[in-house]
Amino acid sequence: MAEDAFTEHRPLLFTIAYEMLGSATDAEDVLQESYLRWRTVDPATVRHPRAYLVRIVTRQGLNHLRAAKARREEYVGTWLPEPIRTAPEVSDDAILAESVSMAMMLVLETLNPTERAVFVLHDVFGYTHREIAASIGRTEVTVRQIAHRARRHVHARRRRFDSDSDAARAIVERFLLAAATGEVQALMDLLAPEIVQISDGGGKVVAARRPIIGRDDVARFVLGVIRSTAATTRVEHATYNGMPAARFLTDGELDWLVAFEIHDGRITGLYGIRNPEKLHLADTVHPLDRGEPQPWKR
Hints:
Layout: H1 2-8, H2 10-21, H3 24-39, H4 49-72, H5 94-100, H6 102-108, H7 113-124, H8 129-136, H9 140-157, H10 166-181, H11 184-190, E1 191-200, E2 212-213, H12 215-228, E3 233-240, E4 243-250, E5 253-263, E6 266-273, H13 276-279
Parallel strand pairs: 1-6
Antiparallel strand pairs: 1-2, 3-4, 4-5, 5-6
């Protein structure tokens, strides 16, 4: 049945849509639209349901991405992807963990919609240039050129990080303890010299509107935030976007979320999301799946 096929491949379809859009809300919209289109297709005419569904999601995702690009140009402050809560096993797939990380999602945001779709489908999900060309309505030669350009762009800007692990979570715990107790040197020892802190309030809540770069400035910022945090704030550990994260709840409500980028035992990136519109799905665990490439034929 059509519904059974869609449900079976939903984790893969969501993963593709999210990596194309950087928004779980938009990804869910794409899946809803794709499902409605899929319901109009006679399943008996489709030899490879998963591949056919990927094609539908890709086209719907491109439509949404083009519209989102215009909206994000007017975004107040720094834009960060809508965080998704991921199961710990996502970190076991190095390619998947990197592809949904905050750092990679920000790099993907610098690509144009077609470049982003091609890069995601080819480099993350392993589809061939010919298969992608059939999906986005371009020639195979053109897709190959787009893929080369996008890959060069991404590789020049990607940041190295370690996936969520016991060691990474231990560093986060030490960071939170040092920040809470005001132990400046202990905090500084955990931060890489070139650390970048990015906040996203969307103009709706108080948040730094520009990235903060460098160990000294980031340490001052963190200690200032902790001092201003309400006494009723509770901290929970979690995994978001394949990265160790901390959830800050005030009076039982999620107030902000911080994802930690860690490399070689030091924190190299802090990604703080406070925009309430991006936190409303933060309690939902999203199953992610890269699947195995299949032919794009019906």
